[in-house]
Amino acid sequence: MQAGSTPTGYALDPYSTLLPQPELAFSQPGTCLLNARTAVEVAGSPEIDGLFRRFVAGLPLPTGDPGNDPANTTQTTLSFVTETDDAPGAYRILVTESGVGIRAGGFEGAVSALTTLRQLMPAHAWRREWNAGGGWAVPCGTVADRPEYGWRGAMLDVARHFFPKRTILRYVDLLAAHRFNRLHLHLADDQGWRVESRRHPRLHEVGSWRPSTRLGPDGVPDGTPHGGYYTLDDLAEISAYARARGITIVPEIDVPGHTSALRAAYPELGRPGQEQAVLDTVWAGGSSLSPTRPVVAFLEDVLAEILDAVDTPYVHLGGDECDMGWWADDPAIAAEMAEHGYTDVKQMHGHFLRSLGRFLSSRGVRMVVWDEGFVTGGVLPDTIVMAWRGHEVAGRAAASHDVVRAPLFPTYFNFDQSDLPEEPRSEGGPITLDDIAAFPPAPAEWPDGMRQRVLGAQFQIWSEWVATESRLDYLAFPRACALAEVLWRGRVADPVDFERRLTVHLERLDALGVGYRPPAGPHPWQTGGTGVWRRSGPGRIEETKKWVESISREP
Ligand code: ACM
Known about the structure:
alpha/beta, Chitobiase, domain 2, 2 domains, 18 strands, 18% strand, EC 3.2.1.52
């Protein structure tokens, strides 16, 4: 930008502050004023037309006459043209004094472009309401951009702690602001079942709440009931809201392990005679389902209901950390194993997941499994393997399957962000911003064939120790900003420049009302204090990394 042309509200050339960083972005002299009078001209699908109209209508402007600034007599245009040869998610923006022109291959690119356009405005443009006078002055310039990875995700565990629908919708907005395009909802685990079932209503009636929670290191029940679930209508709303913001919901029903809540509702689906309750402890309960036909049929009912509500090509079936110890001695399971000629219970684990996967295929949906599912053969040719353990199993899976990287290190954001003693209680760590910035989803040492099977990556927030939205904000941001850049650009090319852009970006998060962790350390109210949220001791991330790599090599 030339001297003298910097519009009010800009400290820096905004083309140099974009996060994630586009492939190409530079400013030119002049500015373009966007306001409620800006004409929208879309040569694209009705969906894109709606997206652009909503963008202009949603710009925070004073109500009343948008042209109340007497100096403002210009009429600008926000236009979209479909570019048939663009890669999914790719887009171009040209800002001139007469308007903003956007070109993209489709809806995903259009969403990304508008996110970038909002970042070209002052941080106040991220507020819901703001008196921007006659409109928002966007400096002239050009952006040409495309994403490196197609799966740019976040997993939220709503089972250990339930997050109300409004938190999920807000989270969708925050993810979209960082060009993430998948929200994986972990809807079922030992500590809670979080979705309505009209066919099997005890799932939500019984499985969705617990009378108490044992959080503290001393394991004392807190005596406070905890629970909640999404109705199928809530899920449909979340799915539509996310879709309109370029995000696909990936629902997960974790089976056949992690099923205490499911079995509190329907104990007959697991080990005969085993008492079950929704767990009030933070750790896994060792409950598992019987991998037999009647259980597959029951789960097909549940998955069908979810698929009627959620518009998604992906359903996650879990498959992780399953206790198969009792399977060989159970007559019904042994009989099915004999029928298939299986000699190892792991074959039954694979068989069970494949059966459900074929049901999903019949509905045009690809199954996703944690990497244990890959190891036991619980995969179909088009199954996506979500590799959470070490790098070794991710590589094994990428030799034959599409892989989404979700390694504990460095994508489990429920771990501490630093080694400061005042960090709140978590599961260990630290996993720092620098660790994430240095993470290569497709490692350079892998052959091209394997690298090409890496669809992308996602960060996880497991919620054993995450009971509130403010804790969620604290853990997700700003680490999600670093992963967003890794996934969009392929890597954080220049950590010093990333830090500079992040400083500006934090003003956008302030405008959005995000309770992120400040770079220098937590605010006093974000620390663990001296109660049950106090940190349990120094993190041992090197030991954790060794452990997760060792279990990753399990056959
Ligand atoms: C996992 O952390 N068990 C996926």
